[in-house]
Amino acid sequence: MKLWSRRFLLGGSVALAFAPKEAARAEDYPTRPITAIIPFAAGSASDVVSRILFDRMSKSLGQPIIIENRPGAGGNNGSALVAKDKPDGYTLLGGGSGPVAANVTLYNHLDYDPLQDFETISPFAAFTIVVAVTGKLPINTLQDLISYAKAHPGELNYGSVGIGSSQHLAGEYFAQVTGTKLTHIPYKNIGQYQPDLMSGVVQLGFQWYPNVSSALQAKGAKALAVAGPNRLDILPDTPTSKESGLPDYVVSGWFALLAPKGTPAPIVAKLNNAMKESLADPDVRARFQQQGAETLYLPPDQAKKFIADEIVKYRDIITKAGIAKID
Q1: Do 150 and 111 fall within a single domain?
Q2: Residue 199 CA, distance from chain mean position
Q3: pLDDT tens digit string along 197-247?
Q4: Both 42 and 92 in a single domain?
Q5: Separation of alpha carbons 236 and 230, rounded Å
Q6: For 218, which of 30, 80, 175, 306 is 20 to 30 Å away at the CA?
Q7: Residue 327: what pLDDT?
Q8: What is the pLDDT of residues 88-124, one digit of tens each?
Q9: What distance in Å separates the CA atoms of residue 93 and residue 255, rounded to the nearest whole number?
Q10: What is the rounded (10 degree) CA torsion for 64, 69, 74, 80?
Q11: Nearest Cα to 221, choosing from 288, 158, 149?
Q12: Domain hosting residue 110, numbered range
């Protein structure tokens, strides 16, 4: 037998020897607890919905999903940590629209590339933006707000959890769509935002429901519209932006599950299926809705395109707003 033929056969034998082991590992996955890094603070809205999902997914997978909160640098620190981890399905990222999309444009440097360094399993939650106004102002509809903002350029301010957050960019996008000028106030401690909204210190919010719920319930603020295709179950009487005459204003903050690049496709598929099953659970959907969140699911190939499209969308908003890059 010729030498090259022997090498070919030997190589083929080695490949066949390893293929079943790889398949078996993916088929048996998971055989031990999984760690999910959430790059945001414990108790935040992102943390709450992630825990709801991961608790249900752990039942489908037969192994616990242990959550570690690694906040810092707008979610970049925890995201970079996962990007450098072993691609075996045992370290995952509960990423969000900030670190996975907006921060690509917002920061001068990231230690990871959301499209190149991760396998996208699926987005899983969307926090539809709630447009809220302090009760101190004579504004009762979205059109009232637009008219008032045009008559008082730059006088209205809105609060967010920080520069480049989905709430900040939702405010910038509102100004772009309506041709108005608003002033952004970033909060280091979002707990102070609702008292300020009720007192009129800050007049507006383009917020997730948990960040305005107390103010709305206390009648210190009014929800003018929700910037999604459907009304929120938690705010059934609040119209959508389309119903309010502003159909182009559709925006939300979202969260997605990702794994380090190179994670085997069968493992990504198993995680995707576990997520799909979990998000279909009526209890999970109900608990999401209590937080003002909607479930969101895509198969892996569509999930990656979703991330790519969102990066472009946020790049356009940030560029048009002239937001300075962060070092």
Answers
A1: no
A2: 30
A3: 999 999 999 999 999 999 999 999 999 999 999 999 999 999 999 999 999
A4: yes
A5: 10
A6: 175
A7: 86
A8: 999 999 999 999 999 999 999 999 999 999 999 999 9
A9: 10
A10: -60
A11: 158
A12: 33-126+253-321
State how far the Cα of 125 lies from the Cα of 293, in Å rounded to an integer. 6
Cα–Cα dist 225/239, whole Å: 5
What's the number of CA atoms in the CB half-sphere (13 Å) around residue 4? 0
Q: How many domains is the chain built from?
A: 2
Any idea what the CATH number is for the domain that residue 285 is in? Answer: 3.40.190.150
Tracing tokens 């999902």 back to the chain, one arrives at 53
Q: What are 134's strand-pairing partners? A: 221
Assign residue 171 the CATH number of its domain.
3.40.190.10
Does 156 lie in the same domain as 89?
Answer: no
Residue with tokens 């082991």: 21
Above 80 in pLDDT, residue 16?
no
* 49 and 66 fall within a common domain: yes
Which H or E run includes 83?
helix 76-83
With residues binned 3-state (H G I as helix, E B as strand, rest as coil), the percentages for the chain, rounded to 5, are 45, 20, 35
Task: Dig out the tokens for 121 from the structure.
Answer: 């399993």
Give the full edge-to-edge strand order of the sheet including 157-160.
183-186, 157-160, 204-207, 130-134, 221-226
